[in-house]
Design brief:
This protein is mainly beta. Helices cover 5% and strands 36% of the residues.
Length: 151
């Protein structure tokens, strides 16, 4: 596994929080923490934009993917509203996470809570080339669409 160094700025309201890290050597994501001033209650069916108190300088040719934490989803029905959220490599503002409560009970976000995970992944630069027809697909799907390959 290669290691990439990414510049990170702690913002004033996140200065006392731990920087995102991979929890274990095999973890794919870095845990993002809530940089809230006080408790934030998210009622069932509602959402809130939760600041993290950090900004990143992602390398060109990469993106940050903000993904839900599986434990929050399983235990509380909390997920990332636009999962996965994308952080473009040229964005330099604060990372904030839109959390939604799909659970049955109100959920409290507290300062320092691990609220999401950040995956840094390569992206391709793409130029579309218009065509009258498309080459044959190697698979069986072709144009069937949703559910066309069965259960």
């Amino acid at each position: 596994m290669s290691v990439v160094s990414i510049a990170v700025c702690r913002l004033p309201h996140g200065a006392d929080l731990a920087l995102p890290v991979q929890a274990t050597p095999g973890s794919a994501g870095l845990d993002l923490r809530a940089a809230v001033a006080g408790d934030v209650e998210i009622l069932p069916g509602r959402w809130a934009l939760v600041p993290t108190g950090i900004a990143l300088a992602l390398p060109p040719g990469t993106e940050g993917q903000v993904r839900p934490r599986s434990g929050l989803a399983l235990r509380h029905g909390i997920t990332v509203l636009n999962a996965p959220g994308t952080i473009d490599s040229d964005y330099r503002g604060e990372i904030a996470v839109p959390l939604i409560n799909h659970g049955a009970e109100p959920f409290i976000v507290r300062r320092g809570d691990r609220i999401a995970q950040l995956i840094v992944a390569p992206v391709l630069s793409v130029v579309l080339s218009e065509a009258e027809t498309l080459p044959e697909s190697l698979g069986a799907r072709r144009v069937g669409g949703f559910g066309s390959t069965g259960r």
